[in-house]
Amino acid sequence: MFKFIVMRKSLVLLLVIILVASCGQKTAIPEKDMVSILAKIQILDASIQHHKYRNKFFEKDTIDYYSKTIESFGYTKAQFDSSLSFYTRNPKILDAIYDKVIIELSKVETKISALSKERLDSLERDTVMNYWNLKKRIEFPKDEDLGTVDFSIPVKGLGVYTVYAEVCIFEDDRTLNPEMEAFFFFDDKSKNGNKSSFTSSRYSKGNDTLVYSVQLELKNSLVTHLKGSLFAHSNSGQKIARHAVFTNIKVNFKQNISPKQRIRNKLRKNEQIESSR
């Protein structure tokens, strides 16, 4: 579906085109039906002008398409032409019709935009990938061999990465300053490689499970991995009693999209919605 920019001049031009074959029938189509017909013709006209459908309508007489639209309301093109002639001779009534056509098109646009947003939001929710590549539930001391739970996840492109987990660090845990850490990495041939955008979230100790997350925005296309530790602490490497549970661990990625691409995507989704109606 397309955004309709309806100006009175464009409607007048459209009417002039259709009126070329006007004949003189006496009975005019009721105003309500005229509004519906003109609104639908305007939608068809916008479709014809759009690049996706331009080839489909190329070298075809668009008046034929207008005629089919008129006939779908139970009128002939001759009736429509004579009705336009009548209303053109009554400018106040014609102005009122113009105004109602604009209102109808605005309603259609609002309805399609709302439906498009709902579909896009649903699509976004359904397609969120979890890139976490280790166990989904980690318990200490049971998983003591995992150490600080270091992770290394290949990046998927430029955009925002979020590391998320539901965490319970019990009161009898002996780690110091336990936290979630994350950073971007690529091998620049130096000893430790290139690390950037380091961020962390400190855990609280207690017997309650809390939600923690860190978020990083990748802008450097040289970066190859998102790395970090799920259970970093100041006294790592020492033999200490650790008591913690990590569940619902996720790494999500949201791609950066330019304003132009966002508009293209929205238009594409609108077209898909309209074609499925």
What does this molecule look like?
- The protein has 277 residues and is an alpha+beta fold.
- The protein has two domains: 8-126, no CATH class; 138-260, Galactose-binding domain-like (Jelly Rolls).
- The chain has seven helices and eight strands; from the N terminus they run ααααααββββββββα.
- It has helices at 8-18, 31-49, 51-57, 62-71, 77-88, 91-126, 259-275; strands at residues 138-140, 150-154, 159-169, 179-186, 194-202, 210-218, 225-232, 244-255.
- The strands form two sheets. A four-stranded antiparallel β-sheet has the order 1-8-3-6, with no helix packed on it. Strands 2-7-4-5 form a four-stranded antiparallel β-sheet, with no helix packed on it.
- Helix 2 packs antiparallel against helix 4 (62-71) and helix 2 (31-49) packs across helix 6.
- 19% of the residues are buried.
- Residues 1-7 and 20-25 have low confidence and may be disordered.
Strand arrangement, largest sheet?
A: 1-8-3-6
Number of helices: 7
The CATH architecture designation of the largest domain is: Sandwich
The CATH superfamily of the largest domain appears as Galactose-binding domain-like
H and E order: HHHHHHEEEEEEEEH
| Gross morphology | elongated
Mean pLDDT: 80
Cα radius of gyration in angstroms: 31 Å
Helix amount, in percent?
40-55%
How many domain regions?
2
Helix/strand/pairing category? alpha+beta
- Low-confidence residue ranges: 1-7, 20-25
End-to-end distance: 10 Å
Number of strands: 8
The main pleated sheet reads as:
4 strands, antiparallel
The percent range for strand residues is: 15-25%
The CATH topology label of the largest domain is Jelly Rolls
CATH class of the largest domain: Mainly Beta
